[in-house]
Amino acid sequence: MALDRRSFLTFVAGGAVGTLFTPVIWKSIDDTAIWTQNWSWIPRLEHGPKAYAATTCKLCPAGCGLNIRTAGDRPVVAEGRTDHPLSQGGICPLGAAAVQMLYSPARIKGPMKKQADGTHQLVSWEEAEALLLEKLNEAKGQGGNVACISGDENSTMNEVLSGLLAQMDSNRFFLMPGESLTASKAFGSWLKQGVLGYDLENADLVMAFGADLLDSWGTAVRNKKAFGAAHPIGEQATTEYVYVGPMQNTTGAVADKWVSVAPGLEGVLALGIAYHLLQSGMIVPEALDFSSYRSFVLSRYTPEYVSKVTGLSSEQVAELAVKLRRANRPVVVPGSAISQGNGVFSLAAVMSLNFLLHPVNSPGGIFVLPDLPTVVSEAMEPSIIRGNDLVSFVQKITAGKTDRPSVFLVYEANPVHGLPQAEAMSKVFDDTFLASFSTFYDETAARADLILPTPYFLERWDDVQTPHGAGFVSYSVTRPVIKPLFDVKPAGDVVLGVAEKLGLDLGFSSFEKVLEAKTAALAEMDGFLTDKVQPWQVRTGASPAPAAGNQWRNISRGAVWTTAVTPFVPAVLLAARELSQAAPPDVDDWAYPVRLASITSRAHGSRHIAIPPFCLPLLGEEELQGKTFYVRMNSTTARNYGLKANDRVKLVGPGGECVARVRIFEGVGLNVVAAPLGFGHTAWDEFSRGKGDNIYNVLTVRTEPGSDLSVWADSRVRIAKAY
Amino acid sequence: MEEKKEGPSKGAVVVPFLVGFVAAIAFGWWGFPQLLYSSKSQPLNFTHLNHVQDYGIDCEDCHYFRPDGSYAGLPSNEKCAECHSMAMTSDPDEIKFVEEYYEKGVEVPWLVYQYQPDNVSFSHAAHKDEDCTACHPDVGSTNELPPYYENRLTKYSKETMKMKECERCHAKEGASNACQVCHK
Amino acid sequence: MVLYLKEFKIKWGMVIDLDKCTGCGACMVACQAENNIAPVVDASDKRRSMTWLLVYQLSNQKLYPDHDVAYLPRPCQQCGHPNCVPVCPVIATDKNEEGGIVSQVNARCIGCRYCIAACPYHARYFNWHDPVWPEGMEKTLTPDVSTRPRGVVEKCLFCHHRYMQARDKARVEGRDPNALAEGDYIPACVEVCPTGAIAFGDLMNPNHKVHQLSKSPHAFRLLERLGTDPQVYYLSRREWVRRQGDNILEHETVEGV
Amino acid sequence: MCDKELWPAGVQRCSLKYFLAWLVVVFAVLGWGVYAFYVVWSSGLHVTGMDNYFAFGLYIIFDLGVIALGAGAFFSGLLYYLVRVEGLKNIINLAVIVGFICYSGALLILALEVGQPLRSWFGFWHPNVHSMLTEVIFCITCYMLVLTIEFVPLILENRKLNKIKLLHHIAHNFHVIMPLFAGVGAFLSFFHQGSLGGMYGVLFSRPFVFREGFFIWPWTFFLFILSAVASGPAFTMLIATLMEKATGRKLVDFSVKALMGKIAGTMLAIYLFFKYLDTWGWITGILPRAGLTFDQMYYQLAYGKWLFYAELGVCGLIPAILLLVPKTRNTPGILYTAAILNCIGIVINRFVMTSQALANPVMPFDRWYVYVPTWAEWAPALAIIAYGALVLSLSYRYLPVFPQERKLNPV
Fold first, then answer.
1. Where are the beta strands (DSSP E) in chain C?
2. Which CATH number belongs to the domain containing residue D358 in this structure?
3. Would you call B32 an interface residue with chain C, using a CB distance cutoff of 8 Å?
4. For residue D177, what pLDDT is reported?
5. Which CATH number fits domain A589-721: 3.40.50.720, 3.50.50.60, 2.40.40.20, 3.40.50.300?
6. Looking at CA atoms only, how far is residue D368 from chain A in angstroms?
7. What is the ipTM for the molecules in this complex?
8. Does residue C196 belong to the interface with chain A, where contact is any CB pair within 8 Å?
9. Could you say which of D44, D51, D128 has the minimum Cβ distance to residue C91?
10. pLDDT tens figures, D277-323
11. Among residues A594, B66, C105, D78, which one has the fewest Cβ atoms lying within 10 Å of its Cβ?
């Protein structure tokens, strides 16, 4: 039969009908729908047994315990550790994003050398280490013309680095500026062997001056845990929290009481309170300078004066004094909302309340926390390190008052972005050899002549010694939970190797050995592990079993070591001389009329970590819009400067300026503009680069009379509408 | 009547129609599956029966529940290497395991006949009293591993149980058929 | 209009103490990591971002210095009488399982977004974009929650996979999977919260803390008067916070809302 | 080249060159729309202005609008075939074509609107019988079939096609059973117009659109039916007038238009009576029970109260009066203006029910947002209009759409 058109059509019709009785159409439709579950460009899940690895976080100085959940050896999620006294199962947003940061696009893939055109080129470790050796050798020949900046206050890495410097006859070892420097200037004369800690857990009244206790200040997660325990869900609070500070930040929002005081005036209010306490007959018997302190306070910080300067009523000030006097175990926490740039006046004034209220080392008050023994030969003593003022050093160099080091080593720090007046300060790195030990391609790495990438903290050994703001001594170890993803090398190993080639003997062949020695050295002190009894419980009568067994084995697997030993304190000084010299003047600054309340939040990263991808959704609509960030002021302030919500505003400080949008927020004091640090990155990755401006640029450094300390927590700016 | 004469004869209509119909049926039921599925074989031939009969290994020695309630469906290299860290025979599959997988630290990419999509979370613990072969092919009583057919479009195994079958049994047993009991 | 009401012997619920929430956002980050939500470069596009758990900032609307703020974390409210469920044309979302969690199966969802229109809490999110992880970061995906393609709706499920895992653990240990103890099953956000602002448990079980807390005079639920009957309760001793939990007419007074 | 033998007998059409030039314009717009379809399907709905607040956008508003305006088909059919309003004979073909265009266009847009078009058949295979949207999916699809069946005989009446005996018979027999389809169509139409309204009315968590009602149907169910019936005939009549203006030929007798106007006016008046009652109940009942006030429902210009007054006053009451009073209705200019206002009012209603309902924040600490559609939403909408123009142009040129055309345009 010939195939004519008609029979062909009939054939097709038959085929079509036949097809309906086969799976072809139905299965295809179904499978196409199933295919949409399985698009090749969307990752599939990988299965594997669930396990946990206990370690310690290094993303900020708070030293929280992290439990890294793994699925078939892949780290997947960071969880809290209930057995860690600094976090007790809690976690901050930055810590919660820790695992994903492993794969941050800003990770440095291998050692890099700066090219003539300013770009970086990957080189081998041999070449990189040879270059470092060459530069250090030159510096050694010049009599130790080398300086080091460490961004990690708590690591034994500081011993390795300061030991290297010391053996090269340099004492220019600096931490990124923090509050331990201020404390050292204020109390260093009598507090040689430790730092002051705050026993929040046993307190029944916590009054924080400036310190953003519940977000980023000190041991933030532990502070929150203490706050949480004192505010049982659905029940009456057992401890009152009062926040004295410039704005309703995280702490101000949730504290039982918020007292609005502009940055820089916390000390004035504290002495105003001290006035009442002194009037009621309180004394500090163990203080040598009590009488000069007493007469200074009573003569100058009268209720009228304090009320005039702070804008609070005399009744409000008196009420705070009553609160403190009535409490059984009150503790007062001094600080600045950004944990840096605080003056001796502010710190000593606030701290004096603690001395007035109860003797040092009483439960629910302040404790002297001893430093841990050092193990690296010739490493600087912690108390010396705390007293080195980086900002003054940089200012002296730029002013030509001291010579510029020929080599700068920067370890896990980002001074190019994160020093006050950052733009001007970073000029210190001009005409020097800058080597950056960093995990991420931050602004300092981008500027560096040599990048020596460190493993991410989930890939390396490291440790955390008693963080600033803690209430007790602690030691815990950071341990690798995954092999390094890239061609990176622990900075400790690099430095030890180079030192050896320089003919210096630091006493160790690898950083892991340093940590082992550190752990062994802890045996000198009467310590215990926190698995059953917590250090604050010891102060109220609990008795722990002394640490036994293989210390390194226990601690390297996550155990936390602590001690209840407190050094003997024969006498204290209230820093009365410094208080009287550093007291802020009564005149107002008309050139820069607005007080700048800078904000740090763990949601914005930390000093050396830019905002992680997973924290971006935390920024509200009025914190970041596209590339523009917001500063906050109340409606009265805004009106005074002709500003409305969403207007573009320029903040001008003596050293720099930046542009933002206005967010009207009534939780900011009068004539105060609140602005977040941690924005305006120029390096890093697409997640953080180019978003907002760098407020560090408008911070203003002044030298505090009396202490000669660089201070910028009380910076001031001029604001005007920007077009 | 006139119209009928004008039209073609019955046969001329019916025959091509039938040819088309039969061709479509044949293609749909035989050719189409050939196109839709690709056949794959296991990376190694594992001899279940030998392991059970000759060496007295229990099923649960390799296929066990972890303490957290999850199910270790397939043994890892480590498990196999408890015996096979070195080749004990000249069996090519055993040698391949040792050289290609164990020593290189690569897990054996076993093809699971019953592998469920990512959006399904099958709880072995909830079904631990059922017979394994109610869902899985009975590989335990033979030394041969059957071929694995993969749907080219969906990338799932041909034998992957469809939701209907799960639902039917759940309904019969009085178990919940709420969506999230199985989906994730 | 009640088409859909089912009672359960177990009702998983949250009680969130707004006087304890600092708004730090750790819960939001933990949620993303736990549930395999992809990061986005411009997360400031709030109207397209993916935040199963979102922390709202509440203001008492007063001027300085009388101003007060509160933070309100908003997971899916797991309504007892959800509006999203009856409207779904393909049963991709359902409230049918013991425990009362409103399910959402992305493989069934056709992306019509009717449920998003129905939800007054904005707890439902549409995948406007295909999820993209920076290179390598997909290795941090947990095996517990499937990835979702663009074009489907998703939402908080109270970390339902953790419920399943807790049940499996109970089964293997020979316990009754339908009688989990308090703490056996806890969503990721509850677990990480550093101030312990969130309590979680079975609202029907008098031995669980949430049972009592939900009856507190300071407890309220969001938009309660609409009749959605949420399984998420909030606590606050501040009256202005409780007032903002629902729409209140000027002349209406709020007693222990 | 000439296509004259394809024209309906005894009528005049423009030259093929003219016609093709017009089609080029139509296809240009269509092409832009097809490109938008490609972009949306290949990259996702983020190219639209929709977001987590505006789950529905221009796609849905457009669909609701054209489905309401396309209601002329079923209501004219109902009146003509079942109630036997003979005057409608002269416009019923156009009503069917307009209905066909509106429904097929709406379905095309729906294929864009769903995030997973390849799964859209789940609506039939895994239906949730409680969902108003399920009712919509079923009824719209079925009614689309009915409209196609109603359109087919008209196509077969093309001069060339009708010469084929078989097709002639089919066309004839279809006509005979047309009342049956008209009835089925009317039933389906009632239900899906209603379900579209019901979709909003059942949203008890959205006080802006929530309505109580009868059994499972909220009042919006019935209001949507009535409003569609009130605007559909007016729209059909306006299309006829537009075609007359475009072709320069008289196609329908003015009395037919006036009749359509009268039907629309009557239905509009009935609709408004209930709509006013409903609005009153909403303001005094539903809103206060939800703790809200009338004033809180409106925001700035985009969602201002002017919409309320425009919908129910200027584009509601006024056209209803103009269409009901014989004197104004029989004045062509006024008739057309009133019909246009009528259609605008219904479109405003659909916009408000969709966009404003979603913009309206329900949580007290939430805020208003404004929805702005992007090109990816305008392009397909315009393409559907172009598609309508294409179908109408082809139908007018080649099919005997207007029975009166020969009489009204003597050669």
1. 12-17, 54-59, 69-74, 93-94, 103-104, 124-126, 153-155, 198-202, 219-220, 232-235
2. 1.20.1630.10
3. no
4. 86
5. 2.40.40.20
6. 13
7. 0.94
8. yes
9. D128
10. 999 999 999 999 999 999 999 999 999 999 999 999 999 999 999 99
11. B66
